[in-house]
């Protein structure tokens, strides 16, 4: 016997993306039969596309989907895209931000949020932080790199000063008054992973930790850099203690601490390796 499963293929366009015009979003109560609208959260891996000329019913249907599954990054991103297509940039900004919170590794959402932060508020530091996070999340995405390059050229034109630094270098010189822990953390991560600038990364991780002492991941990064750059066992231990107090079940923090303990113990037993 052939095995059959429910499929959205009959509703897909040539690229395999679902057109919401063809999907019945009305939930049928009291029925045991499968319907495409029965539980859309089962299809949260699918991207749903909406054209710019959809009516208000479609917007309402999308809002219901988001309300029913408010932590679904796909629903949040698609709803943000719909709002943006309809010209509601403030609403799009809100839902792209929620999408980045639901899935911090979604480069597309990070990029779209960065673009709106720049377009709506001209907040260079915050936009830069999210662009850098987008590049880290999707390093091979040409659209993200193009948007990031465009942003850097724009801020270079805005400044329009005769500096010896390049647009890229200039964009990395963040405002010393910035105290947004997420922006500072993203910038530190960018400096470490993309630029290989460990000293610069340490500076911004320390600023991020000062802005949010309860961020265990940032405290762990400070500890790792204290050990890697300065071989300061006491300072690294202090930062790891802070990290474990803030995030006692974080697997990344625990793994980094275990690695540090192993290296420190090995060094104590074999001082000739120094």
TrEMBL record:
Gene3D superfamilies: Tetratricopeptide repeat domain. The keyword Transferase applies. One of its GO terms (molecular function) is transferase activity. Pfam families: TPR_19 (PF14559), TPR_8 (PF13181). Keywords: Transferase. It comes from the Eukaryota. InterPro entries: TPR-like_helical_dom_sf, TPR_rpt. This is 43kDa postsynaptic protein. It comes from Helianthus annuus.
């Amino acid at each position: 016997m052939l095995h059959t499963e429910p499929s959205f293929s009959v509703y897909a366009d040539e690229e395999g993306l679902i057109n919401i015009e063809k999907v019945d979003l009305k939930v049928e109560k009291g029925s045991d039969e499968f319907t495409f609208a029965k539980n859309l959260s089962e299809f949260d891996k699918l991207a749903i596309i909406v054209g710019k000329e959809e009516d208000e019913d479609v917007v309402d249907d999308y809002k219901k989907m988001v309300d029913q599954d408010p932590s679904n990054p796909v629903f949040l991103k698609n709803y943000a895209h719909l709002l943006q297509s309809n010209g509601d940039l403030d609403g799009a900004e809100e839902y792209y931000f929620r999408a980045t919170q639901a899935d911090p590794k979604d480069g597309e959402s990070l990029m779209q949020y960065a673009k709106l932060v720049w377009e709506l508020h001209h907040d260079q530091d915050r936009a830069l932080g999210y662009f850098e996070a987008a590049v880290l999340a999707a390093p091979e995405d040409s659209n993200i790199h193009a948007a990031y390059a465009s942003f850097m050229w724009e801020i270079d034109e805005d400044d329009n000063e005769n500096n010896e630094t390049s647009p890229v270098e200039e964009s990395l010189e963040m405002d010393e008054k910035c105290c947004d822990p997420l922006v500072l953390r993203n910038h530190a991560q960018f400096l470490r992973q993309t630029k290989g600038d460990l000293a610069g990364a340490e500076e911004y991780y320390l600023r991020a930790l000062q802005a949010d002492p309860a961020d265990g991941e940032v405290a762990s990064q400070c500890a790792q850099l204290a050990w890697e750059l300065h071989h300061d066992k006491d300072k690294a231990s202090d930062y790891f203690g802070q990290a474990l107090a803030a995030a006692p079940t974080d697997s990344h923090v625990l793994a980094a601490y275990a690695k540090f303990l192993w290296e420190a113990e090995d060094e104590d037993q074999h001082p000739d390796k120094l």
